[in-house]
Amino acid sequence: MQHDPSRTSYYVGDDFYQSLVDSYTDWQTDESEIIDPALRDTCRMLLEKEARMLDQNRLDDWLSLYVPECLYWVPATPHGGDPRTEIAVCFDDRRRIEDRIYRLKNEFAWSQQPLSRTARLISNVGAFSTEDKNTLMIRSTFLTTEFQAGDKRTYTGWYGHKIGFQDGNWKILVKQVNLIDCDQNLRNLSIIL
Amino acid sequence: MTPDDSFNSSVARPKSTSFDFEQLIFEDRVHQCIYTEEAIFRAEMNKVFGGVWVFLAHESQIPENDDFVTSKLGLRPIIVVRDSTGRIRALYNRCTHRGSTVCRQHQGSAKSFSCPYHGWSYFNSGKISGVPWPDGYADDFSDPKYNLAQVPRVQSYRGFIFGTLNPDMPPLEEYLGGVKKPLDEWLDRHPGGTLSFCDANRLKFNGNWKLLYDNSADGYHVIFSHRSLLAMENRLVEGGEEDKGMSYYKSSPDNAPFYVKVFENGHHYKDKRPAVDTSPGGLWNIEGPHPGMEHYEAMIREKLGDKAGSILDLASSEPVNINVFPNLHILGNHVQVSQPVSLTETDTTWWGTAVIDDKDELHGCVDAVNALRMRTQESFPNFGELDDLMNFEQIQTGLAGVEDEWVYMHRGLGIPDRIKRDTDGYLIGPPTDEVFLRETMQVYKQLMMSEPNLIIEREVDAGLD
Ligand code: FES
Ligand SMILES: [Fe+2]
User: Fold this and answer.
1) B117: Cα separation from own chain's centroid
2) How far is the CA of B381 from the centre of ligand 2 (A)?
3) Quick check: A89 and B229 CB within 8 A?
4) What is the C-alpha separation between B199 and B349, in angstroms, rounded?
5) Which tens digits make up the pLDDT trace of B64-121?
6) Could you tell me which chain A residue has the CA closest to the CA of B237?
7) Does residue A192 lie in a domain region?
8) Hey, what domains does chain B have and what are their CATH numbers?
């Protein structure tokens, strides 16, 4: 039976969690680092496009960069932790990302009234191969500045993207956001990082 | 250790502020300065945070002897430790030499703490265990004054560890009073009547700590402050009634079957269970969408058939708010702890809780329940609390208009037969009434007009040979 992940969440089960934890364990090895400049540039372009869309508040376009059964994950522990037994800052499957977007567009989401303005810098992009040649991991460093309600603040950390080659395009399977202060009390983190 | 054989010393008493609380707190209103005056905040950090029982940590954070977790009692840095003999202590994280913290990790296991500055070290009982080159001191360190200070009274209730510096506080259980009952009920819905902390959603806001406590049993704000959450949780509901999440607030909550109840000492309770179907599976049915929901539900139903409903309820939010003055809140499955940082800055940490099932009461489903429960718990801090915190910040901003003096909390006041007493004598009102706030403010007023004799304690004999 086919399930629409925008409406039901059948894909987030034991297998999904296990493969997630496996994918995000010991993946940044010297041996698996990709040297090919063209492929690295493809990765960089994807991340830059994602950042641009988020800065421009094009949230539906942003989500179109993701596969249907995707994940947006901001761990609350510096090493990612195991989301089956630990709370995360955010752990959004497709439906919950759509919830998040729905809420951000809702004029009664007071934490985003007025909407934040953001500027994202992404650098130090490194791509890593996996056992599946159609799947890559990307590490990048980010610095996101947010201005909202008279206050300017920054989010800093690194992204771990898992991307897959599907139908002639690289799409995002998982975005892991590792804030350097993920285990600290954070003020009004209501934007998508 | 009894107070007799320990070394007690009075710390600087909170001096009366020049504020007359009789003129600041009335039945229907409070003066804005209680949220905006630095001197009042300073006094609160003694008279409230120190003067009453304050939640410090949960026993599941320090399961073994020698485990510790850092915390705060007001602004005082504290190490909550299960010492090498198993006794739970709350040590001042403050070297007796020149004042440095001796423990700089949030959590861990240690038989002793060594100060990084000049190397004085202490057993986890607080006793001093060594100083470098002791021959340089004429003093032999036999005076207990060199042992770490500690909170003189530390008591637990069913895993929740509290401390007070006030020898005149009644025992913890007496202080908790009526709020023990909802707390017991909340715990007893879990196998073994217990649970463990499993990391947290950590939030903060630029506002006074009381703004959070003022909100904690407030049923008046729900459909306004959480309007986007309610819309979001119900966006996929087709045809039928929008019943997800806190939808039961939508139609005339003043006359709803649920209620707010006010206990002694500033504690209160909002019991929303009468508003929902609490038969097995009822809570699960009103959960909004969560990651993995359909997968694990299908798995649990296939495995357990009729028994599935009550087990899925364990992954659902329990519709209660249990508020223990001044800093502990239990809501849904969260243990929310608020921590004043400054007059206008407050941390609020939403500890997630996981089910422990040693006796397999969940028939092999505990991992599935916890995998679900993590995701159900992430929802409210992300999509609900942020809007409240923004509203608290905007109150703090609004209160800068100091000439406009009063903050009103008189909803329900003066309407005959609206507020009743239960058989234990506790006030009960509609969930939208501010009766809980008025009663808490009277408790707060008494505390702020009191002069508690705060003390610390030290181990009596020196550890150093
Ligand atoms: S301050 Fe701790 S040893 Fe000097
Ligand atoms: Fe709220």
Assistant:
1) 33
2) 10
3) no
4) 10
5) 999 999 999 999 999 999 999 999 999 999 999 999 999 999 999 999 999 999 999 9
6) A7
7) no
8) 177-447 (3.90.380.10)
Q: Which two tokens stand for residue B183?
A: 């707390």
Residue type, position B66, single letter: D
How many Cβ atoms are within 10 Å of A171's Cβ, its own excluded? 16
Q: What sign does the dihedral B290-B295-B301-B307 (CA atoms) show?
A: negative
Q: Which of residues 95-154 of A touch B (CB under 8 A)?
A: 95-96, 99-100, 102-103, 106, 108-111, 113, 149
What is the CATH classification number for the domain harbouring A43?
3.10.450.50
Q: Which domain holds residue A154?
A: 14-179
Contacts of A169 (CB under 8 A, 6+ apart): none
Cis before B326? omega within 30: yes
Structural domains of chain A, count? 1
Select the residue of A111, A185, A186 nearest B387 (Cβ to Cβ).
A111
**Contacts of residue B269, Cβ cutoff 8 Å, sequence gap at least 6:** B179, B182, B217, B260, B261, B262, B263, B320, B321, B322, B323
Summarised one tens digit per residue, pLDDT across range A134-148 is: 999 999 999 999 999
DSSP B382: I
Low-confidence ranges of chain A (pLDDT < 50): none
Identity of residue B300: I
Question: Are A7 and B236 inside 8 Å of each other by CB?
Answer: yes
- The whole-angstrom separation of Cα B330 and Cα B321 is 6
Inside any domain, residue A24: yes
Q: Quote the CA–CA distance of B122 and B130 in Å, as a whole number.
A: 7
Those residues of chain B that have pLDDT short of 50 are 1-17
In 3D space, the residue among A142, A172, A176 whose CA is nearest the CA of residue A157 turns out to be: A142
